[in-house]
Structures are given as C-alpha cells and as structure tokens.
Amino acid sequence: MDHEKVIVIDFGGQYNQLVARRVRECNVYCEIYSYKTDIAQIKAMNPKGIILTGGPNSCYEADSPTCSKELFELGVPVLGLCYGAQLMMHVLGGKVEKAPVREYGKTEVMVDTSSPLFTGVSENTICWMSHFDYISKAAPGFNIVAHTADCPVAAAENQEKGLFAIQFHPEVLHTQEGTKMLHNFVRGICGCEGTWRMDSFVENTVKEIREKVGNGKVLLALSGGVDSSVAAGLLSRAIGKQLTCVFVDHGLLRKNEGDEVEEVFGPNGQFDLNFIRVNAQDRYYGKLAGVTEPEHKRKIIGEEFIRVFEEEAKKIGAVDFLAQGTIYPDVVESGLGGESAVIKSHHNVGGLPEDLQFELVEPLRQLFKDEVRACGLELGLPYEMVYRQPFPGPGLGVRCLGAITRDRLEAVRESDAILREEFQLAGLDKKVWQYFTVVPDFKSVGVRDNARSFEWPVIIRAVNTIDAMTATIEQVEWPVLMKITDRILKEVKHVNRVCYDMSPKPNATIEWE
Ligand code: XMP
C-alpha cells in the first residue's frame, strides 16, 4: 500500500510498539524495524520521518546498538527518544555519560515552546523519565529546548536539519502532553497529512485481496475470536462466496458462543460467505477423556483442530488460499520486525501438513489490536464480538483443571457466564482486562439443604495487564463478589464454594494451566 510512512527504528526498548501505536493514533502509518536494518533499505521505503526508540544499553559502549551517521543525513526528519536521543547526540559529536542522578518516573520538564516539537505544550510539563545515562553536552549545531532539575539536556533540536532528541518518553501516557509532541513531530515537522484511517484501510485492503485472490478459493479457520472474525468480515467484503469459513466448535467455548458466531457469520447473518460449523464436541471430549497433563491437553486440542479443519478443507477441495488473522504484534513478536526478542512464533495454523499447498492471505498483518477492533466496527461486526476479552485457544479446556469431564466443564461454563453477566452489570467488563472462572478437580465438604455435600469449588480470577507478561489483581468491590458468589452457589450444579484468586503474575500465571 502506498501510504505516507514513518519508520520506527527499534533499539530494544520496552515501549517500541507503543511508539508505533501512538504514531498511528495521529493517523500516520508506521512500521517498526530493527536498528540493524540497512540504510539503503530505509531510504528505499521513502519515509516521511524516522523515530529512534529507547533501549536498555549505554550508547558509548563498544558493542551497543548503533546507527550510521548517514541516517541523519537523509533529509528526513529524525526524532530520537531516550536511548535514541542519546545515540543521536553521541553519533553527531555530543557527549553522553552516566548521569549523577538517575531520573525515573514522572518528572517536571521545562520546555521551550518556540520549538516546533513543543508547539501548544505547557512550559512546565510532566514527562516520563527512565534513564541512567544522560546527555551532558548536546551535539554541535543543536539547541537545548528542554531541561529538568537534574537533566541539563532533556531535549535538543537542530531545526535546520530536522533533527530532534528527547530524553523522556512521549509515547507513555504518564507524559501528559506526549501525544501532542508526537503529533507535532509527525504531522507538523514531517508534514504527514494523516491519511491512515480505518475506512481507507478497509477500502485499500479489499482491493488488494481481490487482486491477490483473483477467482481463487479462500479458506479461513474461524474461531470466533476478534482477529479471525475481523479477517472473515474483511474477506467477505472483498470476495464474498469465494470465502469459506470453517468454524470448529470444540465444545470448549463459552456459553452461547458457538451460536453467537453462527448468528453473525452463518446463513442468516450479515455476511456473504460460505459458513461451515463443525460440531466436534463429542470427538474432543472423547480424545480428552482422562488426560490430566495440561500441555498434553493443549496438544490434543490444537492437533484435533487441525485434523477437523483438514478434513473440511479436503471436502471443499481445490482451495488456493488460506486466510489467517495474523496481526502486527504477532509479526513483531515473531522477530520479523523490530528488535524485540522472539517471544512466541505465531503459529495460528502451525502443524498443517505441507502437502496442503495453500498460499497465505493475512489481511490484518499491519494492524495493532485496537486497530483490528476499529476495523471490525467499520465492517459492522457486533460490538460484543469486537471487544471480546482475550480467550485462550484451548478455551475452557485449560480452566477445567485436570481431566475434563462434561459436568465439571458445565460448571466452568455456567459460572463463567454468571461472572461475565455480573461484571457487565457492574461496568467492570470495560475496566478489567481478563476475568474468568476455574474449576479444579478436587472436592470439599459443604452443607446443602441440611445435608452434607461434597462438591467442587469455583475460583474467580480477574486481572489487569498491558501485555499479559505480568498482571495485577483487580480489587473487585465486595458487594459485586458477594452477588456473584450467591448466584454461582444457587445456579451452578455441583459447586459448594467460591474463592477469589489473589495472585499476581508472577508468581502465578493468568490461567491456571
Ligand atoms: P498465562 O496463563 O501464560 O496467560 O499468564 C497469558 C495470556 O495468554 C492467554 N493464554 C493462551 N492463549 N493459547 C492462547 O491462545 C493458549 O494456549 C494460551 N494460554 C494462555 C491467557 O488467557 C492470557 O490472556
């Protein structure tokens, strides 16, 4: 696609994806590349601006990530953030050294509002600092345009060359006017018009899909999750009945979820596509019977999915393309863009046999999650589907601990439905990142109707996180918890106890298996 583009050069900072997201919030398309990317390649991309991210190193050490001086001579505006700012100064002849005082956290910064970077910004503004090193001397040709009590060069600029360096992190929301600063850079200094919008993304992508697919047949494994649902909506708009969605109901979905997916994408739904629902519940329960080891359960669930999908693909025959809901963080985390460590290789359909010769179609490959959601709304998908909380691929299978049995799975499903209903009533569904129930495979003694009972507990989990790598516990109000407990004890069979999981990640994980 021929967008105006800003390039984010990644030096391994923890906020690199955030920088890219904030730029896109200014309606400017941007992509993340490793600092190792060849300068010729950067030039060939014809960027309107370049942003250098933060990073954990000291730029004056011999083996630290660096960049060539040429990067600053392309005639393209460059903004360095934190490590990126220090590196810009270091490469261009300034001085960076260990700071006498480490700045960390919200810090008052005094800025020169005549700098185009700080147009409309308050003279004293709160910014997020996180650095051990500091710029003790700006490079020749640079003016200092911001400082703090401990940091003589909090920002420097060479307006003539379009070079800007800031020590703090405008991408982090704790920097109160950071969005304005990034907007000033990409829209003002780089002169981007701001043409990256969801309606034009949909229009362009529809065109691209049509060009790529021609008269071919496309197969999509639809899970009902946000990404595959939005991909289905997009492909349906582009190629209608050339698309077949296979929805495997493995019996590990949340209450009513299978029917909801069918309502939206099935023959009575709003989309023009072929929809196949495979009711594979019994097949799954059979395979999973007596299996207690979590990874083994996961493996069975994943493999069986592929087997079912494969069988359907064979029935349809002559499929040319396989569509996937891969999104941009999957691409970056697979180590294909940026500098972040390979966190997970995305393998949405990993394990498909090689003799199924598909070409891949990944229409959401450029989008962040929030953009995928915006795209879903643009396509007319229901709000509840687009704003679904994350749900693990193996579904309720990893929340029905140990060997899965139908009655215990039912207890997970019913208690989860109650929890979701009550969270919605209390407005917590919009606030809490992920919430669900778990039913372990042990029983405890209780009393029901004046008689001894011996039944399962239900454990409630509600966590907040940004990236699921660490998580904190939501402090749910007591009355809400009491109401949920009451309902679970009344309405869910074979349960006599409700507990609230207080454990953050680490030491716990979000899921129990
Ligand atoms: P943990 O339990 O590792 O979970 O703290 C982190 C996030 O990942 C989700 N999760 C999964 N998602 N397949 C998935 O698609 C899985 O096997 C899986 N296991 C965990 C979990 O729900 C949480 O959001």
How would you describe what is shown here?
The chain has helices at 16-25, 39-44, 83-91, 178-189, 198-213, 226-239, 257-265, 281-288, 294-316, 328-333, 369-378, 383-386, 406-425, 478-491, and strands at residues 5-10, 29-34, 49-52, 78-81, 95-111, 124-137, 143-147, 155-158, 163-166, 218-222, 243-249, 274-279, 321-323, 359-361, 434-438, 444-448, 451-464, 472-473, 495-500. It is of the alpha/beta class. A 9-stranded mixed β-sheet has the order 2-1-3-4-9-8-7-5-6, sandwiched between helices. β11 (243-249), α7 (257-265) and β12 (274-279) form a beta-alpha-beta unit. α13 runs antiparallel to α14 (478-491). It is globular and about 80 Å long. Xanthosine-5'-monophosphate binds next to loops. Residues 298, 390, 392-394, 434, 468, 505, 509-511 line the site of xanthosine-5'-monophosphate.
